[in-house]
Design brief:
This is BnaA09g11200D protein. It comes from Brassica napus (Rape). InterPro entries: Apaf_helical, Disease_R_plants, LRR_dom_sf, P-loop_NTPase, WHD_ROQ1-like. The protein is α/β, with parallel strands linked by helices. Among the domains are: 135 residues, no CATH class; 66 residues, Arc Repressor Mutant, subunit A, CATH 1.10.10. The protein has 13 helices and 18 strands. Helix 1 packs antiparallel against helix 2, helix 4 runs parallel beside helix 6 and helix 5 runs parallel beside helix 7. The chain starts with a helix and ends with a strand. The relative contact order is 0.05.
Length: 433
């Protein structure tokens, strides 16, 4: 038993150094021949539990995995009067550790009567599956924290927490307190590196909460058909703050009205993408004329756009722009006014021929990705990017014309190997500082 325990502890320690599927290879290969007894307390990160005991086939016949959840009471056993209530919680959660963690956090410090009321509501509802259990954690949140939960579910899952705070710095939300609350209630986890992680079941709860709101009051639009109605028919959309639009669910494409974005005064996050490649076409009649001035994030991933807009737009609030996978994109718009832009991703824009010179003076740009831009011929001769930390340009040969380049990015600590090679080959033409 001691050897087995040490083996398990070593496996858990290794999780901090590598990613799955190591546990399956390491644990299953080491322990599948044994009958194992695993005792686990839910106190640390759930990823360790999932990696250690995710599948029963990892352990030999007769093995048992016993999980102790101390989140609700912070002690080994339930106080007097709570024993039967705890049994009901376990039954409702179907022995799912995630459900136990969320329910435990939601019921913590509540009285017996509160437990009884919440459990009775769940047991009497038509939706008694695990999603209904997880919904309890969401329902007990303050309305501001509920909205932050929805934003994470729709836009910010697996994003850096500091980046999310920066994206919402001008909103009315106390993001720092909200993230702390969501983490305390086990609705999200924040890794040691600062990555926000929301379980896919909880993400489903957040997206469902958006669907249940009255259409006229929704601040987030994620239903593709409703988005089409809003963008094509000039419906009242003054309250909309974010749009996440999967165009692959629309068989005939969508033509955006020229007036669609004029009424979206609070629009901050616009993400239009395809989860699968198909011949759908988006005609951007509206955004080509007027970009919402409060826009913070603009994403057109895997789009079929050839251009976005013409001329100079008011982009002073824009912090992230992701056009990756837009195979037909031939032109990047003028970004002179995007003075707060921090991330620009042009990866996979195969048809892109020229990077506009306006990018060379984006002093707050931290990440620039231009991988796989195989048609790129013209690159700014002047890059004064004092805040640039990451430059990626794999399979990209931008220094094609015989001119002198001035490259200034003193804080860049991540320069991909291909970028180093390109700059090295053109060393005589580059003045690098």
């Amino acid at each position: 038993m001691m050897r087995v325990e040490l083996c398990l502890l070593e496996s858990v320690a290794l999780l901090a150094l590598v990613r799955p599927p190591l546990p399956e290879l390491y644990i299953a290969g080491s322990l599948a021949v044994f009958s194992i007894l695993v005792l686990w307390r839910i106190l640390g990160e759930a990823v360790q539990l999932e990696a250690l005991a995710d599948e029963t086939k990892w352990f030999g016949d007769g093995s048992r995995v016993i999980i102790f959840c101390r989140i609700a009471f912070r002690q080994l056993s339930a106080p007097h009067g709570f024993e039967k209530l705890v049994e009901r919680v376990v039954n409702l959660c179907s022995n799912l550790p995630l459900g136990l963690r969320v329910m435990g956090s939601s019921l913590r410090r509540k009285k017996v009567d509160d437990w009884e009321a919440i459990l009775q509501r769940l047991e009497n509802s038509l939706n008694r599956d695990i999603e209904g259990v997880l919904r309890v954690g969401y329902d007990n949140l303050h309305k501001d924290d509920q909205f932050l939960f929805q934003l994470i579910a729709c836009f910010f899952n697996y994003q850096d927490d500091d980046r999310v705070k920066a994206m919402l710095v001008d909103s009315n939300l106390d993001v720092r307190l909200g993230l702390k609350t969501l983490s305390y209630k086990s609705l999200i986890q924040i890794s040691a590196e600062g990555t926000i992680v929301m379980h896919k079941l909880l993400q489903q709860v957040g997206r469902e909460a958006v669907h249940l709101q009255e259409p006229r009051k929704r601040q987030i639009l994620i239903d593709a058909h409703q988005i089409c109605d809003v963008l094509e028919n000039d419906y009242d959309s003054a309250s909309v703050m974010g749009i996440s639009f999967d165009t692959s669910t629309i068989p005939n494409g969508v033509c955006i009205s020229a007036q669609a974005f004029r009424t979206m005064r609070d629009l901050r996050f616009l993400s239009i993408y395809e989860t699968r490649r198909d011949p759908n076409v988006i005609t951007l009649g509206g955004i080509s004329r007027k970009v919402p001035e409060h826009l913070v994030e603009l994403c057109f991933v895997n789009s079929k756009l050839e251009q976005l807009w013409q001329g100079i737009q008011p982009l002073t609030n824009l912090k992230k722009m992701d056009l990756s996978g837009s195979l037909s994109l031939k032109e990047v718009p003028d970004l002179s006014n995007a003075t707060h832009l921090k991330r620009l991703n042009l990866t996979g824009c195969w048809s892109l021929v020229e990077i506009p010179s306006s990018i060379g003076d984006l002093h707050k740009l931290e990440e620039l990705e231009i991988n796989l831009c195989i048609s790129l011929q013209v690159f700014p001769s002047h890059l004064n990017l004092a805040s640039l930390e990451t430059l990626e340009m794999t399979v990209c040969f931008p220094f094609g014309t015989p001119t002198t380049y001035f490259l200034y990015f003193p804080n860049c600590f991540k320069l991909c190997l291909e970028a180093k090679r390109v700059i090295s080959r053109k060393r005589d033409a580059c003045r690098v500082r």
